[in-house]
TrEMBL record:
Entry-linked Gene3D superfamilies: Naphthalene 1,2-dioxygenase Alpha Subunit, Chain A, domain 1, Rieske [2Fe-2S] iron-sulphur domain
Protein name as annotated: Rieske domain-containing protein
Domain of life: Bacteria
CDD domains, A to Z: Rieske_RO_Alpha_N
A molecular-function term among this protein's GO annotations: metal ion binding
Keyword Iron found: yes
Lineage start: Bacteria, Pseudomonadati, Pseudomonadota, Betaproteobacteria, Burkholderiales
Pfam families membership: Rieske, VanA_C
Domain Rieske: 12-107
Keywords: 2Fe-2S, Iron, Iron-sulfur, Metal-binding, Oxidoreductase
InterPro entries in the record: Cholesterol_7-desaturase (IPR050584), Rieske_2Fe-2S (IPR017941), Rieske_2Fe-2S_sf (IPR036922), VanA_C_cat (IPR044043)
Length: 342
């Protein structure tokens, strides 16, 4: 894990859909490390390195015993803090050896299980960013996950980059021949990034024509407290809002676990209607993005990883490099306003 920027390790990352964590332990991967998750009878969560320190058998093959997780090989048992609480075969009254498994900080939010690599003894990471905590209760219309063979930072940039939409999603998101001049305001702070787009109340693609109406705001969010997460926020003249949130959790340097949610506020959009009529279009967009970032990843390996050439049009890359690159430069507060043909 030392190859990763410490800023990433301090943040929160979703690793699993909460409904999939039931009465058996589950293995997930983050930063190249296997982690076992378990939902305890009390309702609490356990997250430990998926390795019994005795003979290295995966703890995810074990079973819950009360509020502890028992290894299937010799029965060593561990609590949520990673401390060994039982070693079957020891004589009564014998002193228990001090054995510890690395524990991860863990909690549940918006249908996802979130981890931080900070040790439980350290101060908790910052709370989730405001743009995640403010999502209205009951407004989520879908939660989807998949795996991309791509670099997490590149996948994250893809989601936040509007300029690829004309060519990667032609006619679906935007039309190359219908570009318009807009004003972009990029606000950067020590906590994250916000990008506001003004001057394009209507979008030129089929998705807008089928499912949207005139916009009053288009905004992108990124925050260091959840450094693998970004959100696109759309507000409309009729008082409704849409929030597309994507999480790009790094399983390792070249594999990205993607979690996607759509939240809808003040608009008729029942989950069944979204699933039957909207989701096929969104899935097509996601597949187009997957193919382009996987091609990017494969070609970067083929030619040897080199820094790409960036211009002022690459709005979010400086912030992403500061967070995702080992030894990235500290983030400085700034605001810039520019024109772009979008």
């Amino acid at each position: 894990m030392t190859a990763w920027n410490a800023t990433l390790l301090r943040g929160w990352h979703p690793v699993a859909e909460a409904h999939r964590l039931r009465d058996r332990p589950m293995r997930v991967t983050i930063f190249g490390r296997a982690v076992v998750l378990a939902r305890l009878p009390s309702g609490g969560l356990l997250a430990l390195d998926d390795r019994c320190p005795h003979r290295h058998v995966p703890l995810s093959d074990g079973q819950l015993v009360g509020e502890t997780l028992q290894c299937k090989y010799h029965g060593w048992t561990f609590g949520a803090d990673g401390r060994c609480t039982a070693m079957p075969g020891m004589c009564p009254g014998a002193a228990m050896p001090a054995v510890q498994v690395n524990a991860w900080q863990v909690f549940e939010h918006d249908g996802l299980i979130w981890l931080s690599a900070r040790a439980p003894s350290e101060a908790a990471p910052a709370a989730l960013p405001v743009f995640l905590n403010r999502l209205p209760a009951g407004s989520r219309r879908f939660l989807w996950s998949t795996l991309w063979q791509a670099r997490p930072a590149d996948a994250l940039e893809n989601f936040l980059d509007p300029l690829h939409t004309h060519l990667v999603h032609p006619g679906l998101v935007r039309n190359h021949g219908a570009r318009q001049p807009i004003t972009v305001t990029v606000t950067q702070s020590a906590d994250g990034l916000q990008v506001d787009y003004a001057g394009q109340a209507q979008q030129s693609g089929l998705l807008y024509r089928l499912f949207e109406s005139p916009r009053t705001m288009e905004r992108a969010h990124f925050a260091i407290a959840a450094p693998a997460t970004a959100q696109l926020e759309y507000r409309y003249a009729n008082g409704s809002s849409l929030y597309f949130t994507l999480h790009f959790t790094p399983e390792d340097e070249m594999r990205t676990r993607l979690f996607a949610t759509l939240h809808v506020e003040n608009r008729w959009a029942p989950a069944w209607a979204v699933r039957w009529f909207v989701w096929p279009f969104l899935y097509r967009v996601a597949e187009q993005d997957r193919r382009i970032v996987e091609a990017q990843a494969a070609n970067s390996v083929r030619f040897g990883r080199q820094d790409g050439i960036s211009t002022e049009l690459d709005l979010v890359r400086p912030m992403l490099d500061a967070v995702w690159m080992p030894g990235g430069n500290p983030v400085e507060a700034s605001e810039r306003v520019m024109q772009m043909w979008l």
